[in-house]
Amino acid sequence: MSDQIQFIVEKLNQEPFRKNYNLITFDSLESMQLLQLLSDVLGEIDPKHAVDIREELPEQTAKRMLSLLGILKYKPPGSISDLSAFRQGLVTGSKPVIHPVLHWLLQRTNELKKRAYLARFLVKLEVPAEFLRDDTVADINKQYEELMEAFKNLHKECEQLKTSGLSTAEIRRDISAMEEEKDQLVKRVERLKKRVETVQNHQRMLEIARQLRLEREREESLAQQKQEQKNQLFHAEQRLQRAQLQLKEMHHAVVDSKPESLMKKLEEEINFNSYLVTEKIPRELESKKNSTYFLQKVAAEPAMSQSDLSVLEMKINEINAQINQLTEKRMMKYEPIDSKFSMYRQQASIIARKKEAKAEELQAAKEEMSSAERQMLQKTSQAQELEGSEVLKGDEFKHYVNKLRSKNTFYKKKRLEIAEITAEYGILQRTEELLKQRHEAVQQQLQAIEDKKGISGYSYTQEELERVSAVKSEMDEMKGRTLDNMSEMVKKLNTMVAEKKASLAPVIKELRQLRQKCQELTQECDEKKIQYNSCAAGLESNRSALEQEVKGLLEECVQEESNYRYINCMKRNLEVQLQRAKEEMKAYVSPDPQERRKAVREQYTRMILEQENLGKKLREKQKVVRESHGPNMKQMKMWQDFEQLMACKRECFLKQQNQTAIGQVIQEGGKDRLVL
To answer: Mind listing the pLDDT tens digit for each residue in 638-675?
Structure first.
């Protein structure tokens, strides 16, 4: 209990309560203060309950708190199992009732806030059945239930978004990275603009490039539409193939069967489906409903510990044992061993179980067959997407195998040719290495000769000149080709621009009319906007003045309300004091001595007399103690000296005994030596 109170005090001293309690002050709170404290905690959980309990009746306070505790699924502890006793303790502000409630509320404040918030929207209003017969009320109730389900879904989505891990820091980093990329792209575009400005007719070239980009985007969109239409056509062909396959199967079934067999097959299917509809599915549905009901009941219960679960398991085992015993007794009582009905009933139960098992096997086989068909169609569609054609069957597959064999022989021939070419490549590579070595030797000899003749570097300079001339000729050819290509591209672009202009001429005419209309509408919009702004400014000024007036009135109302509460409290205190004075006067004037004794004046007079008598006795006792203090101290000193004297004598006696014992031992030792 002390740990519980300490936890409550710690929580109340923290935010948002900040009560500055200690164990003594909290334990000394009166019943009204405890109820107000409980109301404040409930008001923190649900703001509707932030109420001053002095302004409402005790029954209203208890009813309000009990309703909220019921919504929060609070259960009284084992010591307060009786609900009426708990309600009475809540009305009177009993500590054994209030302290556990505060401990339970402060332990799980955040969870209870969420539960109270959801209860505002999910606690269903019970409408009587006679009112639901009205169509309007029924429709409104249905809309109310639909809105409640929508709220549940939205709340779940909100919780999932909160726990999805998308933090604002990551989003800010992404935004900053995107802004950096945007700045880089802007700088790059500016550099490209500066580079293009030096080219002649760059505006025209940019316009042509823009039109080319638009046409390419349009081409991409058309290609995408074409691909989508191809996919739609492919899916339609798949559906057609499935329908044709089903039609073929139906034709085979009709050709290979007779009317009697078809009727028999239909009867079997009807019997099986009727068994599923009338027996199996209702039984499974009933079991599912029962399990759902029990699960909802378990979910509504508070969290259970392991000890509670073990107790429940023991109870379940005991109840099962009792059920088995009762079943055996019933069988022994109503079904004797020699009865033939028991055998028939056992056979009927066995047949029913076999029937259920076979029905489940048949259902599973049908589901497996349908899944296999779906997988076959899926694999067929995947093969068609990969290969671009249908799956081969029969003669087509044999033809495909022969084609693969011919390709395999062709592949083997080409692989032999590749091996020969690889061997020849190795020989040529070795020849190239030998020629390079010879070339290096000749270059060294040529360099030595040039050094002797005094013209070193002549061969290198000549090679460089030849290489530069070759590069120059290649560049000239490339420039000529580039100019030709550019002229052809300009011609093509000019023709494309002319075609686009011709195609865009009617659109431009419509655009001019629309621009003129847009200008008129823009002018009208500006005029309306000016009128709106002037009207909004006037309304805003009126609104601000009204807000100031309302604010002043609210402050005045709050001040008056606080004054009213203060005066009301003072009035109650004065009434209590007046009542006490009346009772005191009535008791003091009463001729009955018993009533007069109950008066406060008589009580205080009696207490004063008792205290005066007690003071006299204590003073007399003090006088006696003072008079006997000197002789008593002297006598105590004499007893202490006597005690020291007796202790000294005891020590001397013990020493003397020890010396006599040592002397006897020495004498006995001397006698023994003389005997020897």
So the answer is: 999 999 999 999 999 998 888 877 666 556 655 554 44
How confident is the model over 15-25, as pLDDT tens digits?
A: 777 777 777 77
Q: What is the residue-wise DSSP string for 273-334? A: HHHIIIIIHHHHHHHHHHHHHHHHHHHHSPP--HHHHHHHHHHHHHHHHHHHHHHHHHHHHH
Nearest in space to 240 (alpha carbons), one of 366, 368, 397, 381? 381
Is position 351 within any domain?
no
Cα distance between residue 638 and residue 635, in whole Å: 5
φ/ψ bin of 160: left (φ > 0), alpha (ψ from -120 to 50), beta (otherwise): alpha
Number of domains in the chain: 3
Residues 22 and 118 in one domain: yes
Decide if 17 contacts 40 (C-beta within 8 A). Answer: yes
Distance CA 127, CA 141 (A): 8
Q: Which of 477-481, 501-505, 543-547, 641-645 has the highest mean pLDDT?
A: 641-645
Helices 109-122, 95-107: inter-axial angle, 10-degree rounding: 90
Residue 453 lies in a domain: no
When the pLDDT of each residue in the chain is averaged and rounded to a whole number, the result is 78
Q: Do 535 and 602 share a domain, yes or no?
A: no
Nearest Cα to Cα of residue 403 among 419, 392, 414, 417: 392
Q: 32-39, long-range: CB within 8 Å, 24+ apart, which pairs?
A: 32/93, 34/93, 34/95, 34/98, 35/61, 35/93, 35/98, 37/12, 37/98, 37/102, 38/65, 38/98, 38/101, 38/102, 39/65
Which range among 218-222, 248-252, 610-614 shows the weakest confidence by mean pLDDT? 248-252
d(CA 331, CA 352): 20
